Every structure is written in structure tokens, then in C-alpha cells.
Amino acid sequence: MAGAGRGALAYEELKGFEGRAAATAGEGRDPVNAPMIRHWCEALGDTNPAYEGPDAMAPPTMLQAWTMAGLSGHAGRSGAYDDLLALLDGAGYTSVVATDCEQEYLRPLRPGDVITFDAVIEAVSPLKTTKLGTGHFVTTRMDVRADGRLAGTHRFRILKYAPRAPGSGPAAPAGAAGDRAAGEMRDLRPRPVVNRDNAGFWAGVKDHRLLIQRCRDCATLRFPWLPGCNACGGQEWDTVRASGEGTVFSYVVMHHPPFPAFDPPYAVGLIELAEGVRMVSNVIGVPYDKVRIGMPVRLTFLRADDDLELPVFRAVEDGEA
Predict the structure, then answer these.
(1) pLDDT per residue over 269-297, tens digit each?
(2) CB-based burial of residue 184 (10 Å sphere; 0-12 exposed, 13-18 middle, 19+ buried)?
(3) Are 161 and 95 in contact (CB under 8 A)?
(4) What residue numbers bound the domain in which 152 lies?
(5) In a domain, 190, yes or no
(6) In angstroms, rounded to a whole number, what is the distance separating the alpha carbons of residues 165 and 297?
């Protein structure tokens, strides 16, 4: 182990927690209900009619809300998760930050549904070095059921880490525990988070295609990729290939903070594609101070490093075909 922790911690010991229950036969504190749906929608400003009326469904992203324990906790909570965190604490990885979550929706939740769930420790990463410090990512998977039927899956990932000393760079992992030396990591662009909802988009990028989701029920195009249609709630979709033509709808020029993988100042644009959806990407081909709203741009692909290629937009010169 890198010298961040107070005691030796074998990765095999951490791997032994994978597959162990984090919660068993947990029960939602309340059935799915209209007041919670209304409060959620009001907080987010979501006026979709699918969430109102006698046939209302709950917004899919509320999946975790129905399983939250509150201050009193859940009766079905397993000791394995607490034991894992205590083990990491004892090794000096005393800080924690939530990093990301992934959700899969299998059927709508409606008022009156009774929620139960089971959770498992799905993965513990090898030692990783981040800008915060050195530690381990811990992923739990929760299977959420409504009236006994699987309704969705929620994956939640945290980083348990030892903070780096102020003013110091991240320490390199010991031996094979890290993916790259710290110096090399600082020179790379951050990796995009690829999950089951957006994997098709990144597969398209790999083939130099910019793919837009299209709802099979109402034909609405959407970007970024989402598990369901935000116009009609439809769950089925296909894709259309973007022409690559667009205009700068808005933009910012990044000056600060400096980041070793980038060379500020540079322009980041909100690009309105010819198909009508918008996406955020770099604007290249002109000096940053020459970017303007309404400027025509065209898709190209930037090789950031050996493992990463990104869609960016090059300014189209006047008279350029």
C-alpha cells in the first residue's frame, strides 16, 4: 500500500467484501405517494403531465428517494458495509466523497407501490490516486422492488481516501496498485464517465459518428443521452446520426483554474446542432477571443491522447463549403 494509511491493508482483504450484503430485505419508509412526487417536481421545476393526475407515475430519477432511511436508519442494514468502511478508516482512508451514481429503470413506479430493496457491495477498486488524495472507490448496487417486482437498480460510488498534504501533488500509487504514474495522470484529460445510459454515444464517437437519441414513441430527439424521453416518458429509443453542422448558441472562455491537461484560455461552446439539440464542446480553429454567438461550426474529432478521442467543433470560415 502507498504510505498514505496508518496500517498495512492488503487489497485481497478488501476484495473479500465484494458480493457481501449491504442491506437485506430493506423496506421503504413510505409507499410511493403523490405529495413526495409533487414536492420533487416543484423543486426541479418539472411540469411533465406524466407525473400528475390519476394515472401519475413517479419521476424515474426519484428511485433512490423511496429507499432513503432518514436519521433512524434501516432495519435491514448489514454490518458488512460498516465493517468495510471501518477497515478503510483504520488504514488511514478517513475522508469520503460521493463520486457518481448510475440508475437503471425497469418499470414505472406509481402512487401506492410498496418499496423493498436489497443492496450488495459490488466492487472495491485497487488503490487509486486522485487530486483529492489516495484511496479506494467503493461501489454498492441496490435492487429496488415495487410490490415484489424489480423496478430499478441504483449504483452508488464513493471514494474513501487519505487527503494529500496541502500544496503537494498527488502521490503516485505503489507498484501496480495505480493505473498510471501521477505525473502522467496530470497530463491527461479527465476520462468521461461511460455507463449503460451513454455507452452507445461513446461507441459512436469511437467510430467518428455523433449519435443523437430519438424516442420511438414521439420521435423527439434528445441530447445528452437519457434513459427515457423527457417529452412523453417513452422508454424505447433509437439513434440518428448528426450531420455535424451547427452554430455557437452560447460560449464561455476558460481562464482559470489552470489544469495541466488544458492550455487556457480556451473557448467552450454550447453548440446548437442542425438537428435542433444542443451539446457542450470545445470550439477550435479560431482564437478564443474570435468566437461569437451564431458562428457556424462543423464537427471534427480531437485525439486527446492514445486512449481518448473527443467530438469538438471547428469554426467554419466565411465562404467555406
Answers:
(1) 999 999 999 999 999 999 999 999 999 99
(2) exposed
(3) yes
(4) 11-181
(5) no
(6) 44
